[in-house]
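Saturday, quiet lab. Running sequence design on the structure tokens for the scaffold JK sent over.
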């Protein structure tokens, strides 16, 4: 019996420095998620700090959350760009099945801190995370922790979660003074963060993003009503247009045309930072908020390959997804090339993706497993080629022979049986000849 190799193929993303242009202006990113804020109530409240950020950045009061419009579905979508059926977080102790922006930053060597929220993200590789726990003054308490941690450790990415407006909405209703006061006090806490950034001299070099996970209708939400589904967002910082209200360019079934979807926040944050989008993101980059001099716009096509492993025998095809993200005007004549340096048989489909600017798509890649007889490896090159862009990805395919059971273990029983049979046959023949000669 011949040796049957076990082939393990792993895809690793290798991104040349020219592919993703890291912004030299963004030194920090601060994401503030205020739970359960209706945009119309926010507009009616006194929020001087939010007003200042609106004047200095890009904003919309007409974005849309996911369905169901509840925290355990929406916050994972903020952090991943993935809809609920992809991240699969269904309860407060659920495991997230999608890559987060925290993981994108940490893998790039950029430390992160998450203050006030954790369990519905299922655990991720943040350098620091408080986890969520009840506190009588959660908004003030978590803001204080965030300020103290940022001053001491200066993380690249800081996320702060404020649950109080949602609590007050459920307790008193969305039309109550208590609900509006909670929103106004959230604005006060935002002012504390902005003051800290100014005192540290990093305010102008910090990307600040403020949003909510869902709205509120009466004392509840989650039923798909417009006041549940409508959310807001504010982006302020390097590479972002100033004083710009987003145009309603994204069509949705629930709210008609909106500025963006909640799943568009994660890929927009990582794109503004000059990094790849989270692997499982299905959101679009919100290109309309990018300033004309943003260096990311000079690289219209980005791509990433899921890190994965496959096992098979010679003659098998392994299947992988090549994710292509078009961040700006896509060259009309672009094409996808995937080649093997050692001549392995690589097939893929489609060869072109019919996408609009800002959309994403996936290419199915089929890698044929050759009949390897020894440890071997190959480099597969994936290129997105066009007149205005050349993006190269490099991922490694490694083939490894089966070690146990080895070829020897298969042959030994056979050899022993053959040898024993030969001895028995020789003895029988020798005895037969002696009997004939003695007659």
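Result came back. Writing it out in full:
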């Amino acid at each position: 019996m011949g040796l049957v190799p076990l082939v393990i193929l792993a895809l690793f993303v290798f991104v040349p420095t020219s592919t993703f242009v890291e912004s030299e202006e963004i030194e920090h990113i601060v994401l503030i998620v205020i739970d359960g804020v209706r945009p119309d109530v926010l507009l009616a409240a006194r929020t001087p700090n939010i007003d200042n950020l609106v004047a200095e950045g890009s904003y919309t009061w007409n974005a849309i959350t996911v369905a169901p419009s509840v925290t355990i579905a929406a916050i994972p979508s903020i952090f991943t760009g993935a809809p609920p059926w992809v991240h699969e977080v269904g309860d407060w102790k659920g495991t997230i099945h999608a890559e987060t922006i925290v993981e994108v930053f940490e893998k790039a060597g950029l430390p992160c801190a998450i203050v006030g929220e954790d369990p519905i993200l299922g655990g991720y590789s943040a350098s620091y995370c408080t986890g969520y726990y009840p506190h009588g003054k959660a908004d003030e308490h978590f803001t204080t922790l965030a300020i103290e941690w940022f001053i001491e450790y200066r993380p690249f990415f800081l996320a702060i979660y404020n649950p109080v407006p949602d609590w007050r909405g459920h307790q008193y209703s969305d039309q109550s003074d208590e609900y509006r006061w909670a929103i106004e006090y959230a604005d006060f806490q935002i002012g504390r963060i902005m003051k800290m950034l100014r005192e540290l001299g990093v305010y102008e070099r910090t990307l600040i993003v403020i949003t909510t996970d869902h709205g509120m209708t009466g004392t509840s939400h989650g039923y798909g009503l417009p006041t549940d589904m409508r959310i807001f967002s504010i982006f302020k910082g390097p590479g972002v247009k100033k004083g710009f209200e987003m145009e309603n360019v994204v069509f949705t079934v629930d709210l008609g045309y909106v500025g963006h979807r909640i799943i568009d926040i994660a890929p927009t944050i990582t794109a503004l930072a000059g990094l790849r989008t989270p692997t499982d993101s299905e959101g679009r980059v919100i290109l309309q908020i990018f300033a004309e001099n943003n260096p990311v716009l000079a690289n219209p096509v980005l791509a990433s390959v899921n890190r994965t492993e496959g096992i098979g025998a010679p003659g098998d095809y392994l299947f992988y997804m090549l994710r292509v993200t078009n961040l700006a005007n896509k060259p009309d004549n672009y094409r996808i090339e995937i080649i093997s340096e050692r001549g392995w048989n690589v097939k893929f489909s489609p060869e072109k993706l019919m996408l609009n600017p800002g959309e994403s798509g996936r290419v199915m890649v089929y890698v044929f497993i050759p009949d390897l007889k020894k440890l071997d490896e190959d480099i597969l090159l994936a290129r997105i080629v066009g007149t205005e862009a050349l993006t190269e990805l490099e991922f490694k395919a490694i083939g490894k022979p089966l070690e146990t059971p080895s070829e020897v273990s298969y042959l030994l029983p056979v050899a022993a049986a053959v040898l024993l049979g030969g001895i028995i046959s020789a003895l029988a023949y020798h005895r037969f000849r002696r009997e004939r000669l003695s007659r």
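Notes for JK: The CA atoms of residues 67 and 224 lie 7 Å apart. The radius of gyration is 29 Å. Ask whether to fix the surface positions before the next round.
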